Every structure is written in structure tokens, then in C-alpha cells.
Amino acid sequence: MMFMKRILLTVAFFSVSFGILAQNPISNAIYTPDPAPYVYGDKLYLFTDHDEDDATYFLMKDWLVFSTEDMVNWTYLGTQVSTATFAWAKQGDRAWAGQAVEHGGKWYWYLCCNTARGGDALAVAVADEPTGPWVDAVGAPIAEGFGFIDPTVFIDDDGTPWLFWGNKGLWYGQLNDDMVSFKDGYREVPGYHDPECFGELQMKMNWAVGHDESMTQYEEGPWVYKRDGTYYLSYPAGGVPEYMAYSTAPTINGPWTFRGRIMDEAVNSFTIHGGNVDFRGHSYMFYHNGILPNGGGFHRSASVEEFKFGEDGTIPFIPFTADGVEPVGNINPYKTVEAETMSSSWGVRFDRLSGADHYVTSVHNGDWIKVREVDFGDGEPTHIALKMLNFKHQGRVEFYLDELGGRPVATVEVDGGDMMRMAPVRSGVDGKHDVYLLFRGGDEELFDVDWWKFSFTGTRSRSSGH
Ligand code: FUB
Questions:
Q1: pLDDT given at position 466
Q2: How far is the CA of 270 from the centre of ligand 1 (A)?
């Protein structure tokens, strides 16, 4: 944790220049490769893997969950599943890509691990809520084989669940309603070796086993989606470095037709992996890159871009942006806002309080949290409440609107006494703003932060617009 923080501080000046204030990636506080979005109710959940800070190759021990209601502020819901969830798996490594869905009131998270003997294997965790607790659904892999990684689950309009997966191979099978067994076994996706279906492979160094004439551009990380009766299969393509391509088919069993490039090779990462989803009337493509300070092929971060399908149903080429996507909702400051809900941050990290309840930690002088689209309405709050945890050293939290600088709208002093603090808010705070929490103190780590909330004493207008 401290290793990453030292790097962050060292490159502070350059990072501000290169856009640490930008919306992409979705978290500056933790690495989030292989993003898998899923919409449920009024939330979009994002399931990711987790590159370790000290990785020198792929080093991944657990998986993460985030959620958003507005596409710009993301709440860290924590490390829900790790290799320890699967007693049969190799421990402390190979917690690679996966995807979760809700089906019949249960949540199923399809993941790839290695078996204790070292073989590629598909795992399933099950839970009542996306925040867990998650347990091994079977007690064993549901499929094992060379290249059996990157499972993606798709539930058809009639409720039929399908699982696709594979690196240097592409397999699929219909799941039974139990979501953990195959109805008729599994097989290779039709056309996997046909350039008409999955693109002609150019001579280029390849991911694991070099160039093979029988291979197409499909590389790994499949993602299945359906729109207007057409099935879409998107995937990292073309060998290393990977770009994002897609194919379409009139049925889940094909025939697939190669449709070409969706995204270029990721910035500063030789893999790219993600998937598309529709949320609040918009279409989004998630992917990962290595754009964080100290980012790279083994330190990857989830990002997101909006796109519009062509009138003929095609997915357009989607450029990378630093600004990410527009907000589709806002934050109500008169309800408790978890400190781990943020659009971007500097220096801070996350830790777990209990269950799915988390907090912000590793708070030092100069660190900050940004929360976008905070709608004060015409309410003019008079006070801010701030809940801290784990006092370490004296400091303060300054609240700013729209930019880090000028006069704070509120300052909360933290001196080791009561960790639940109220402070006055200067008058005239209304309308929609970005809110910054800037932490001030000495050289040592200061304290942890649980949540904040604006309120009224009753002497000003109470109309908040919510
Ligand atoms: O994150 C580990 C592996 O890298 C994934 O399983 C692949 O899709 C690639 O992103």
C-alpha cells in the first residue's frame, strides 16, 4: 500500500499534468483490471479483478465490487471473493477475470483460478447480494482445461443462461437453471478458426503460444450481449498488444461474422478486457488500461466510454478519453455519503469496516477526494457532519466546491476526541457542485474517514431539490 502511495506522491506534478483529475479510470485508489459491468435496479455494479501494488507479473489474489448510480461517482464495495473462497484453488495468485449476474434471486460470479496443481479452471461463487457474503457454489471447478479463463455469462431473453470463455480457444455451453452445471456439456464456438467469423490473424507475436495458422484474431476475454435479436461477441483481439474487436450472429450458436475493431490497443497495457452494457438510456463500453501513475500491463485500471450503436446495429469505433462519460444522476448531500464514494482521489486507499461496509484510509497531508454532481438544491446547508475512524494524528478536513483552492466552505478539525464531528458551513452553498475533501496535517498518517453529510440547523431554507 505504502509503495503505491510513495510512487503516487513522487509523480504528483506529472500526474496532474496528465490528468489525475480526469474521470477515467474509475478509481485512482486501487487497480481494477478486467471490468465486468452489470445493471441491477437503479445501480450499475462493476466487478473487477485486482492487480496487487507490488506485482511484477500478473499477481492477483482477490476480486472487487464497485457500484454507481450516476456513472461518475463510484462506491467501493470491497474485496468480496478471493482465492481463499475456493479451497481447491491455487492460493494467493491467479484470481483472473470474471463476471457476475443475478438469476432467480441469487447472484453468481463466474471466475477463473488455477487448481492447486496449476491448471486453468472456472469457478463459481454464489451470494444473495452483490455485496456478499459469497461462497464457493460447487466446491470444485465447473470446467478445467488449458486456456479455460475469462468466463462471461449471458442470460438470453427467454431466461436461458450461457457461459462463454477461453484464451487461445473459445468455448461455450448452456447452463442448467442451477447456474453451475452444463445442460449438454460445452464445445468450441462455431467458426473459432474461421477468419470470416473472428478475423484474420496478422503475423504478430502472440500471447502465450506464438503464431498458429489455425488461429483467428480472437484472443481472450469474451463478452456476450444481445440487441434487437442480434448476438454480439466482443473480445480482445489480434495478439499482444490486444485491441478490442467484435463479431455478431443471428443465434447464440452462430454463425458469427467478424465486424472489426471497437477500440485501439489500450494505453500502457498489452491487454484490454471489458464489456458493454446499457444503463439509464445510454450505452457504455468498459475496458482497462495502464494510465494510473505506476500503471502498466500488471497494474491496470477500469475505464469507461459512452457510445451509440449505428442505425444498422453496428458498434462504432470508440476512442479513449480522459473525461470518461457524462453524469446521469447526482449525489444528495443531505443523505449520508460514504467516504469511499468518489469520482477521483489523490493518495487515499480503501479498507473494510465489516461486511460490505468500507472506509477511506491512508490519509495524509495533501490527499483529497472528489465527488461530482453534488446537488445542494436551494437548501443552503448550515452544517457538515463527518464521521472519522482510527485517529492517528491531528489534522483537519477542508471542504471545497468545484476546485481545490480558494476559501473552504467548511473545515472540520480532528484532534483525537470525538470521531463524529459537526462544523459550520459558510452561507450561500446551493445548486450543483463538485465537492472536494482536502486533508491537512503533519507528515504522519492522519485518520480514516467513514462518511459525510450536510445538514440544516433550521434557520435557513430546507428545500434541497431532492
Ligand atoms: O487479468 C488477467 C488476464 O489478463 C485476464 O484474464 C485476461 O483477459 C487479461 O486481461
A1: 36
A2: 10
